[in-house]
Amino acid sequence: MKKKLLIIEDDPGLQSQMRWCFEDTEVHIADDRESALSLLRRVEPQVVTLDLGLPPDPGGSSEGFALLDEILRLAPSTKIIVVTGREEKENAVKAVGNGACDFYQKPLDADILSFVVNRAFRLYELEKENIELNRSQYSSTLKGLIANSPQMLKICRTVEKIAPTDVTTLVLGETGTGKEVIAKALHDLSIRSDKAFSAINCAAIPENLLESELFGYEKGAFTGANQTKKGKVELTDGGTLFLDEIGDMPMPLQAKLLRFLQERVIERVGGVREIPVDVRVVCATHQDLQTLIANGSFREDLYYRVSEITLNIPPLKEREGDAVLIAQSLLHNFSNQLDRPNLNFSDDALAAIREYPWPGNVREMINKVKRAAIMADGKRVTAEDLELDEPCNTTDSVLNLRQVRETAEKQAIEHALQIAQYNMAQTARLLGVTRPTLYNLTDKYKLTTHDQNTD
Ligand SMILES: Nc1ncnc2c1ncn2[C@@H]1O[C@H](COP(=O)(O)OP(=O)(O)OP(=O)(O)O)[C@@H](O)[C@H]1O
């Protein structure tokens, strides 16, 4: 680390005396607030010495204190040493109370000053190391994936091993467990990382459009096909294709996917030409493919093709210690995004996070923590802000069975909407009702059918 020191001092004599105290350090000098702030922004010094008596108040300390606040606001990790006159002990103590790391009293003694400044450089370095250490605790080695549980660390190791190969990988896990994050990590750690990564959700695209979305179409293939269009597979040539919700792929298309995986060629809809494509395929589903195979809605031969390696991502509630770790990291990010620095969970919030079953896994946690970060009064996020209450089962406070039934129904729909990210078809499937029934129910309970967090 190149040591950079900013000396804020309006006395030219002291400026040059101080400069000579720091031979192995890059020294910058400012004599008022404006020049100090411009150097702070440009040079980003780790340590600043600040004379409290600056113009336009050289005999007082108001300008020095204002500058102290401003530096800490702009660059909170900077170590500031206030320089005061012999009679200004009170100001020195006040400045440390306001966030300065140390103080130094004139007259100047080169040895003591360099000792104090070097100690501030060391402190800066230690704090930085500490932050790095905390950050590395948050991380698995995979980008975008926070994990420290043995279960997830084992998955990370497997991902690192299989990423450089081209094996077709099946990622299994409940909704919101991070299957797409894993697929992206497989891509990022492979030699394909500089090529495209495309994700396609087989459940979200109507059956009749999925084939042309995947394989493209030739001009004139169907009404409205005014020009030839490449599909996702072709556009991903050289890269990685992530097929999410593979269990929802219609049977006729499963046959085409199988052919592609076996022969590595595609045919556009309405085309006659075979086009070779080099794509690594990663599939995912939250469904039990064995059950789908048993009831005839998923091809067994395709299952074996897509599952050369299978990764089972455990639900969040089964990962030891990860819920709190992820929640803390999310809160840290949201508090920065929302410009509400230093938000922390209260003890009851941490206990609630540990206890809650997280049916919507990390996706649900993102919504809850974001909401809580917005709602929290002051710096503490409480259990109440998180709204993690489980449905209340007591009968003391309910009117009748109809009311119990309706409350449970409403909660189940709200939950399913959140898990399915407000995709109505997926929500209906989760709840085992038809789409019209779901719309009737959301009307009945006046439930919003879109994600308010993304408004
Ligand atoms: N371990 C984790 N650390 C941090 N963020 C995570 C982690 N796991 C998942 N996420 C985040 O949670 C959200 C949901 O993850 P992702 O889309 O990968 O889940 P999924 O299992 O593919 O969900 P679905 O089955 O519903 O498609 C994303 O915003 C993702 O970045």
Automatic annotation (TrEMBL):
Q: Which InterPro entries match?
A: AAA+_ATPase, AAA_lid_NorR, CheY-like_superfamily, Homeodomain-like_sf, HTH_Fis, P-loop_NTPase, PEP-CTERM_resp_reg, Sig_transdc_resp-reg_receiver
- Name the Pfam families for this protein: AAA_lid_14 (PF25601), HTH_8 (PF02954), Response_reg (PF00072), Sigma54_activat (PF00158)
Q: Does the keyword Chaperone apply?
A: no
Q: Gene3D superfamilies attached here?
A: 1.10.8.60, 3.40.50.2300, Homeodomain-like, P-loop containing nucleotide triphosphate hydrolases
Where are the 4-aspartylphosphate modifications? D51
Stretches assigned to coiled coil: none
Q: Does the keyword Transit peptide apply?
A: no
* All residue ranges annotated as the Sigma-54 factor interaction domain in the record: 145-374
- Identify the PANTHER family for this entry: ALGINATE BIOSYNTHESIS TRANSCRIPTIONAL REGULATORY PROTEIN ALGB (PTHR32071:SF113), TRANSCRIPTIONAL REGULATORY PROTEIN (PTHR32071)
Question: What is the official name of this protein in its record?
Answer: PEP-CTERM-box response regulator transcription factor
Source organism of the structure: Alkalimarinus alittae
UniProt lineage: Bacteria, Pseudomonadati, Pseudomonadota, Gammaproteobacteria, Alteromonadales
